[in-house]
């Protein structure tokens, strides 16, 4: 993984939205979500995340569909909120072009802790089927997750009746982090400086 770098969001993110980044944690979440939505193109199958940060992205995608700026988008939901985006499922679309979701914690290797909302099994199914999984967070979610995560994962999955856990190891391809001083992209491949 390369070093994080400062993104230059497109002009579709208004100056007002960027100025709002210093006002609240929710404003930062919205900025990260809007940056992720810039990756969405017409004719895509999307993985629709769960939680307050993902809701910002879903709302924007729904607005773009209603306004005609996007067309022929279908989404595979990980929760009940879909913002008017036409829905499908993994049986009909086993490969997802792009999933956008939040996380409770992100480490420098792009490992995630998720699941406080209770949708983690469905999230893993959809995000695991994705060609690209973009995580959207504000900078309060950056944290070093300690220990041998793969060993912890294996130990948890050996426990009788445990179906899954909230560690998402190696699934994220990119993390968009909204900070008070701008938006940073953490990318496994670090091939570009922006969208």
UniProtKB/TrEMBL annotation:
Gene3D superfamilies in the cross-refs: 3.40.50.1360
Q: In which pathway does it act?
A: Carbohydrate degradation; pentose phosphate pathway; D-ribose 5-phosphate from D-ribulose 5-phosphate (non-oxidative stage): step 1/1
InterPro entries in the record: NagB/RpiA_transferase-like, Ribose-5P_isomerase, Ribose5P_isomerase_type_A
| Signal peptide region | none
SUPFAM superfamilies named among the record's database cross-references: NagB/RpiA/CoA transferase-like (SSF100950)
Pfam families in the record: Rib_5-P_isom_A (PF06026)
* Reactions mediated catalytically: aldehydo-D-ribose 5-phosphate = D-ribulose 5-phosphate
Q: Which UniProt keywords apply?
A: Isomerase
User: Does Isomerase appear among the keywords?
Assistant: yes
Q: What Gene Ontology molecular function terms does this protein carry?
A: ribose-5-phosphate isomerase activity
Q: What class of enzyme is it?
A: isomerase
The superkingdom listed in its UniProt entry is Eukaryota
* A biological process term (GO) from this entry: pentose-phosphate shunt, non-oxidative branch
Annotated EC: 5.3.1.6
Q: Into which family does the record put it?
A: Belongs to the ribose 5-phosphate isomerase family.
Instruction: Write the protein's name.
Output: ribose-5-phosphate isomerase
Task: Name the source organism.
Answer: Zingiber officinale
Q: What is the lineage of its organism?
A: Eukaryota, Viridiplantae, Streptophyta, Embryophyta, Tracheophyta
């Amino acid at each position: 993984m390369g070093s994080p770098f400062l993104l230059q969001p497109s002009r579709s993110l208004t100056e007002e939205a960027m100025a709002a980044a210093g006002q609240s944690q929710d404003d930062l979440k919205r900025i990260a979500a809007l940056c992720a939505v810039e990756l969405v193109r017409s004719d895509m199958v999307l993985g629709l995340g769960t939680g307050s940060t993902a809701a910002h992205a879903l709302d924007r995608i729904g607005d773009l569909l209603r306004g005609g700026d996007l067309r022929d988008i279908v989404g595979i939901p990980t929760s009940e909120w879909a913002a008017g985006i036409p829905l499908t499922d993994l049986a009909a679309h086993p490969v997802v072009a792009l999933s956008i979701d939040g996380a409770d914690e992100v480490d420098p290797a792009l490992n995630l802790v998720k699941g406080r909302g209770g949708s983690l099994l469905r999230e893993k199914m959809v995000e695991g089927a994705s060609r690209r999984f973009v995580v959207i967070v504000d900078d309060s979610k950056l944290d070093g997750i300690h220990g041998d995560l793969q060993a912890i994962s294996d130990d948890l999955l050996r426990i009788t009746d445990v179906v899954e856990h909230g560690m998402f190891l190696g699934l994220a391809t990119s993390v968009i982090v909204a900070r008070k001083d701008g938006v940073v992209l953490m990318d496994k491949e670090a091939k570009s400086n922006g969208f």
